[in-house]
Every structure is written in C-alpha cells, then in structure tokens.
Amino acid sequence: MKTFEEKWTAWVDGQLSGPELSEFEASLPDKAAAEAEKAGALKLGELLKGELSARTLTNEEFFSHQLRESVARLHETPGRQARETRSMWWTIPRLLWTGAASVAVFLVFTVLVMREKNPAEESQYLTQILNARVDPVVSPNATVSIFEVKQDRVTVLWTEGLQSLPADYAAK
Amino acid sequence: MQTEATPAQADVSELDLVRRCQTGDTEAFDELVTRYRTRVFSMIYNMVHSEQDAWDLAQDSFLKAWKSIKRFRGRSSFYTWIYRIVMNVTIDWLRKKHVKGAGTEFDDAIQLREVDPASKTVPKTEALPYETMERGEIRVRIDQAIAQLSSEQRAVILMKEIEGMQYHEIAETLGCSIGTVMSRLFYARKKLQTLLKDVYENI
The CATH number of B7-90 is which of 1.10.1740.10, 2.60.210.10, 3.40.1010.10, 3.40.50.360? Predict the structure, then answer.
C-alpha cells in the first residue's frame, strides 16, 4: 500500500498509470492546484538541473594525479607492513639470543674475575702456616712458621724468639 | 547517467575496466576515475557546498572504491556502486560535521509533522523578476535552499533531478527502500518549491 507521498511523487514523475492514476487524481481535493504544484515541481527540476549541472571540476588532471599517488602509497603500505611484521617476529628470537649471549659473557667474566680475585685474597706463598710453640719453659716467646710457595715448591721455615733449637728440630 | 566518455564506450568497456582493476591494474582505475571524476565531484559539491571539501571527499570516495573494488560483483552497474560509496562518504561526513539546515538537523519523522502533504507551495518572499537576478544570486539561493534539507533528502533530490537516476537506482545507492526514496523526494521537493518558487516561476 503506497502512502500519499509515494503516490504524489510517482504522479509528478509520470510514473502512475491506468487505474492507479485515475484513482489518485480522483482523490485530489483540488485538481487544478495539484496540477499547478506538479508543474512547479517540474520547473524546480529544470532549475536544479540547469544550475547545478554546471559545476565542473577544475584541475582534473591534478585530481587524477593526486589519486594515483594515494593508490601508489596504498600499494606500498602492505609490503611495508609485512616487513614491519616480519621484523617484529624476528625480534623475539633475536632478543632470546642476545639474552643468552649476555648471560654467557657474564658467566665467563664472573669466572675470570673470581679466579683473579681468589689469589689476591690468598697469600701466594701460603696455604698452610704451621704455628708451633716451642717448649714455653725453654723459649716462652718462640714461634715457628713455615711458608710454602706453591708454584715454585719452595718451603721457608721462619723462626722467631727461639733461644735454642730444640733437639727435635735439629736437622738430621 | 552520463559519463565523460561516450555511452557506447562506457557500456562496452566499463565492466572490462572493473575486471582489470580487480587484478590490480591501476591504469584501468585511472580510466574509470577520468570518466566519473567530474560527476562525482559535482554531486559532492552540491551536497556540501565547499570546493575543498568536495575535492577531499571525492578523493576519499575513489580511494575507498579502489580498496573495495575486488568486492564488486557486477550485480549493479558500476556507477550505482561508486555512487553508493560517494553517498556513504558524503552523508557520513555531513553527519560528523553536523552540517545543519537553518539550524536544525532534518529528519523524516520531524518533517512529517512539520509539512502538510496537501499544502500549497506559496513563496515566502516577493517574486523577483528573473532577469534582474544575477546568475550567482540564483546559485546562492539554490545552495541555501538545499542546505535546509537533510543530507538524505539532498542526496535523493540531486540523484533524481541532476543525475536522472531511477527510484530503484537511488534506493540501491542509498541502501533504502523505493518507498523511502519517494517519500524523501516528496518532502525535498515541497521544501525547495516553497523556498525557490519565486526563482523558478520567473525563469
């Protein structure tokens, strides 16, 4: 079921025919006024067509040129995006490798530093110091120390405050 | 609808151009642009009344057409398809920019209450002799009158009166029913007849 507006529009545009047309025209309260309206609508159409069709696009070639550039940029974009995506994916293994390498370098340096450090703290001469007190009655302040150079396999006997060499220490 | 090429050329090779576009042939697209650029620009200009905006929107429309041309199945004619994109872009822009006619955004429901379908289109201003009016003044009057229509009514009246499109083509372009097209056309004509009677009566 068409509304009044639809029927009117169809009537103005000459799209009504047969019984529909006669039925619609019979329903109009003032046919003369309606005909005047219709004529006005047609004149309006002519006016619009005459005035608005005249608008032309200046710089047509520049318009197309600008569009071609935009299309070309569109073509570049998917490739660039793919490359960017790919480089993003490569970053993760790269990060893992970098992390692993860093840990390895750190461990190597730690081992080296520890090796360097330990000898400094430790005397290079001594692993064992034998502090022996001689008989306190005979030599109350005497001490006997033995220094050993590990690399050179040299042992030094250091005595202090010894008043007499005990018989046990005598070289045989 | 006319194109910048002759109708015969358009009929014969338009589908071929579209098919080539779908394979990524930018030269074929360039040819289609050349055929429709002026009409597309003109249609948009009559909707937005700004040369710069019309230029940008026309560019945007063609770019969207290029992006989605692979989805064109040829069920409708190419110009109906491209006009659909043009109208979507333009009406969307008009809505976003809140371009209003006489300070109010039009809507069909409001108009049904405001306009008496049986009313006579009596001009509000005194009739002016056409000869005394400069062409520019007429153009301004028309632009002002069109600006008082909703974006959908503008689209309908321009496609009908300027492009000479059929109801079903307009409906397809705007994605609405033929009844809606006819109803919008009715109210758009009523409004414009009221505003421009003194102009067209004196032509």
Answer: 1.10.1740.10
Mean pLDDT in runs of 10 for chain A (172 residues)?
A: 90 92 92 93 92 81 92 75 59 84 92 73 52 66 72 74 66 53
Instruction: With H, G, I as helix, E, B as strand and everything else as coil, classify residue A145.
Output: strand
Pick from B58, B62, B186: CB nearest A8: B186
Amino acid (1-letter code) at residue B92:
D
Q: What is the ipTM of this complex?
A: 0.74
CB distance A71–B59 less than 8 Å? no
Set of chain B residues whose Cβ sits within 8 Å of the Cβ of A9: 182-183, 185-186, 189
Q: Where are the domains of chain B?
A: 7-90, 108-200
* DSSP bridge partners of A143: A133, A160
Contact call for B67 and A43, based on CB within 8 A: no
CA–CA dist B24, B69 (Å, integer): 9
Q: Which residues contact B176 (CB under 8 A, 6 or more apart)?
A: none
Nearest CA in chain B to A2: B179
Nearest CA in chain B to A29: B118
Selected from 1.20.1250.20, 1.10.10.10, 1.10.520.10, 2.30.40.10, the CATH number assigned to the domain covering B108-200 reads 1.10.10.10
Where do the H-state alpha helices sit in chain A?
4-12, 18-27, 31-52, 60-121
Q: Which of A9, A42, A61, A65 to mutate to test the interface with B (most CBs of B within 10 A)?
A: A9
Distance from CA of B54 to the nearest CA of A (A): 10
Residue B91 in tokens: 């009406």
Q: Where does the pLDDT of residue B5 fall: very low under 50, low under 70, confident under 90, or very high at 90 and above?
A: very low
Q: CB-CB: which of A5, A6, A63 is closest to B37?
A: A63
Kindly list the domain boundaries of chain A, sorted by start residue: 4-44, 82-122, 132-169
Q: pTM of the entire structure?
A: 0.63
- B45 vs A contacts (CB less than 8 Å): 55
